[in-house]
Amino acid sequence: xxxxxxxxxxxxxxxxxxxxxxxxxxxxxxxxxxxxxxxxxxxxxxxxxxxxxxxxxxxxxxxxxxxxxxxxxxxxxxxxxxxxxxxxxxxxxxxxxxxxxxxxxxxxxxxxxxxxxxxxxxxxxxxxxxxxxxxxxxxxxxxxxxxxxxxxxxxxxxxxxxxxxxxxxxxxxxxxxxxxxxxxxxxxxxxxxxxxxxxxxxxxxxxxxxxxxxxxxxxxxxxxxxxxx
Length: 229
Description:
The chain is α/β, with parallel strands linked by helices and about 230 residues long. The protein has a single domain (about 30-229), classed as Phosphoglycerate mutase-like (Rossmann fold, 3-Layer(aba) Sandwich). It has 8 helices and 6 strands. It has helices at about 5-25, 40-45, 55-70, 85-95, 125-135, 145-165, 180-185, 190-195; strands at about 30-35, 75-80, 100, 165-175, 205-210, 215-220. The protein has a 6-stranded mixed beta sheet with strand order 3-2-4-1-5-6, with helices on both faces. β2, α4 (about 85-95) and β3 (about 100) form a beta-alpha-beta unit.
């Protein structure tokens, strides 16, 4: 019969135990991505950008509903764009947690197109905007380019990740920012994410980061949007 080397066996079992414990304690970071509630310009279908508007009554209700939806999560931190509509949403959604404003999460300035109606009333301006929006390096005459915005958003994401290795974090930003957060985490081109990802004022996404595993994403669906299941 073969001789069993007890010392080697004990070492192997110890290493296996360490691996099991390490796997069990693997850090998991959940980042909830919310958009601010509705503003008057959202309702009027105006290109809002960096204009610092506040929530309307519908938007305040959406922010409170966000808090109800995420009740019990237990956020270790809440971050928000420095613009008023995002900060107000964060305050109403997580009243017990002091939020940290991050200017790098602010919406892009759209330059000459800021405030433009997107419902056809500004037809010539709308046509020019659509023609130029495909160029990620166009700053839209005094605004900010998509690529510039993507770089600062990526820096904000890494700042959050370096501060939180595990737990749950809420990030309240904008319809043009959430796609760029996801672009960075999922390693997508900024222009693709901006085109394909559309977040409504009352929608929230969950991004889970666990060790070396691929980043996972979910969209939280309420009972009023069951057709999206």
